[in-house]
Amino acid sequence: MLRRPKPTDSEEDLLREQQRFLSSSALKRPDKRRGEEGTGDHEDPQEDPRDVVKMSDLPDEIPSLTPAPPKKSRFKKEHVRFEDDDPEDHLNRHDMHISAVLSRIIERDTSTVPVCLPVLTGTAFPKVMRRSHAAEQVSEKYIQILPNKLFVGGPLLVSGQGLGSSDAAQETMKIHQENQARLQEMSQEEILEEQRKLLHQLDPMLVDFVRSQKTRKLCGSPAGSSSTRNRRVEDQGASQKNAAHDQCAVDTAPVEKEMDVDMEEDVETEETTPQLITVEKKWVHMDKGENNAWQYFLTLHTCVCLCLRTHLPTHLGLHHHGEDPELAGYSLQELFLLSRSQVTQQRVLALSILANIITKAHAGAFASDLKGSILLTLLDAGLLFLLRFSLDDSVEGVMSAAIQAMRALLVSPGDEDALNTTFPWFLGMYCFPLLPTTKEEEDEEDEGIGEFTKETANEKEERKSDHDVARQDMVKGLLKMKLLPRLRYILEVVRPSPRVVLDMLELLVRIARHSTSTATQILDCPGLMETVMAEFLPISWAPPSSAVPSLYERPVAMAIKLLRVLGTAGRHICARLLNSLGGKERLSRLLVVEPQELMLETEEAFQCSTEAFRLWAVAASYGQSCSLYGDLYPVLVNALQSVNQSQMSTDHALLSLMLQRAQAILVLLTQVTHTAGCHEELQAGLVRTYSAICNSHSCIPGSELVPSLPGLGFFGEKTHPSLSDPASPFPLLTALCYLLNSVIAIHRGLITKVLCFTLWLQFKLIIRLSKYASLFHQVALVMLPSLQPGSEYMAHELMSVIIFNQDFIPECISGGPEAAALAELRLQEGFSTPQAPPLAPLLREVCLQLSSVRGCYLTHLAYCKPAVLSSRDTHLGRTPWVQSLLLPNLSLGPALPSDWPFLPLISLYERMGRSDGGGVQTDSLPAGSLVSVIYCLQWHLLLESWREGSLAMVPPVAKLARLACIFLSSSDLFLEPPVQRLMWALFGGLTRPAKLAGLDLTTPPPGLASFHDLYSALLDQFEAVSFGDELFGCFLLLPLQRRHSVTMRLAVFGEHVGLLRSLGVSVQKLPIPLENYILPPEDSLPLLWLYFRTLVMKSLRRAWCPVLYSVAVAHVNAFIFSQDPAPQVCITFATQDCRSNNCD
Question: Basic and acidic residues composition bias: which ranges (predicted)?
């Protein structure tokens, strides 16, 4: 038999097979005349190689004159006759007599066929299979076998009868497998293109006939209706180039056959099983609910995310898809492909699985199994655009799944719970905008353009693509993709289920927390807030119906929270919500009645009432809606009195809701009090709490954070108690004390009403202040660099009242200087600094000048005056001047830097130590600069001696760099006697063994590119103005230790050899052990060559630079007398180089 062409055949192979085919006996040239079996014309191929049909002879029959098309016989191809066809052979081939059949009997080889014996059981009859068990076993078995059935079937139209081989079935199957392999190599577009070509070449009537026969076969199968539907679903999925997902279709026909058994047992099961779904009359042939089937199909939607190393049994998961059939589950690429399927259920399933993956990634579930961030991988793959496009789907299920996934990506429930808990705290209503902290780079095309012709930030953002905007800020990217109008359409027209409505409201809350700009866009979106007000904050509503659950036309607590979050964005936005949109009337409707009378569920009623009071408190913080206080005064009194009655409740959930409502009322009364008094000198003395709600135990380890989507870091369940827990008593006590302090400060006549409480609290504070004054001072020092933007007034108060107050530094009175001197003697460990003065006199002088030191620091912080005044209005509750409850952006950094004690030195260095030419300015210092430097050094000495823990956030390399600013700021500032004494004392603290071990010069100091740049500037300054000062020399010798980088030693011996004549610090005066410079031996050949060169050329002498002379001699000797043969070559080369230089 002739061989079929292969894809790997060359052109020569094809021509060779063609020649074999033409020369074989199977090819007989038929007659060219239509419908006649006579002899044909045999033309010589040498004369004309083309197959030319000649019309010289006319047909014997006259063609029909009717316009109807000629009829075609189905069996005409079977009666084709060739020229030399023998009639006898033809009859023998088609003889169907019994003798012809029996003469060609071929016995099949059964030696390799396995024999399956029946399983022996101990029971007389088979075990009865119940319906639920049968369904589970049959479905599991069918799911495992289904993938093989999809690819074992042979061709549907080709029977193999025309093949000349004896085994036509085997050849047919081989042809079918080759076709299958070729189809798998082709893309979907190529398959469709070939299909179109084939249909164009075939007769349309023949195509219709084949399709009708296929449809008749499928429809004629009595038990194949379910499989036919599944096959059609698979065909639709295959059009999406998703063959792996099509295998997930579960054929229910075998299950139905097994379910027909034991109908009486099925009736009993249905009577005892609760109904999972309500059967409606309009459903055809579904008047009888099958709970077991529903339970089985519901388990299919339970998506569990597994790592690749998880070994899941084949009967518990999906294993028959993708390139790795042994792995369970879907890959991310398959999920993205499945989300674009034409089958609605597949799209919903893919989006639901993605939502679960995002939730688990936020909770840190993949931290131990995956390398890198799975959220960043999804976002880079286009997850945000996939979810946004899915919202435009016309199917409600797909929209709901997309909203669920988007809510999992954007919303952090832990952050919202923490913000709700901290609402009663001091300044708890204020929050930071959730803006990304990444700084955008300026466009290069803007360089050299005038200020008036540059594009604004909005114009640049409009010019950017959606992808660029979303990569930098996810919320802005969604707003640019018109998310708000789509959400309005879904809320108003689609009217989805309650869960989807709550997800959409949470999305709007998260968008409103982004910034004032996004809150304004929500308010300006046409019809969005009107729909929220009309549907979820109605003035009148009916009791909820249990038949059809819906959140429409009834109050929703999340909608009220949306108004509250929008109100925090600014006083003008809050006024629009209350007046233009009718929020004031709806607010009064929710406040005038008790929660039990709102005709809502108990939990929802209390949440609505609590959010209503919080919204009123936000409005009162701007001085708005305070007129309602007089009208609703009886309501507030009854609400406060009901708090005592709530203690009798045994329901902990209800008690928590009632306490939250009471806390919101206390916050409201505080804001109303501030508005009524509008005082300017309100002191929040009783409660001074920093409104930072995040702590080290709040963030879940391994939780994934996205730079374009910042948050507070509350994910998953908290395992450590904190002040932000709902069960913490801190919010209620804070709100109560803050209210009492505000009332007493405004109305002095009310002091007698709370006299007992006030006197007891003040007495306790006085006792604890005298006992724990040092602890309060340490807390204030640690708290000061942690204050975020918006707390400048609190920083000013801490520096004015506590930090520089001698009453909070008991060491100044109780022999602290003497104790510090004794501690210094114990810490020297044999290494003394002769130049360093004793610490006791220096510390006594600092204690006497603390008020002057405070004035120095407050003077250098004068640039923060506008921020301090704005922050004062917030902290003192001056409601008419409060513009927004959103604090400044966190990207601006903390209110004060962590190295704020060095602020006078940094300011002087920026004014005097820099110039355009790279040199050093030597002009005279500004007036008062010397005094400021002395105060700064004194305060730093006090902190290093008694409050060393307050400087833990400042690395040692930063301390060294800040102190080096004194040498770079002026040519003679470091020569002043007070500066010399303080610098020697501080340098002695830096050279302690523990401090030297922690000094890492490879880390760049804050504000500098590297420490090497600063050291190069110090070398230039030393050569210019040092006059051989030993203090300056010790600062230069500190980085030359063996453990630090060799680049600084190369800079001294290579580029600044001249300073070796004036670096006259002796070994005895060096406060650093000499072993730190000698051990281990130097291994840098360029540096050793420089050591040897300076010694031979006498550029380095013992009388000029004793320390570095000893270091160079020790390293050169160790190198010369080592066992390495390389030293002799290096020494010879260095000697020749030195001789050539001497000759020159």
Answer: 1-19, 33-54, 452-467
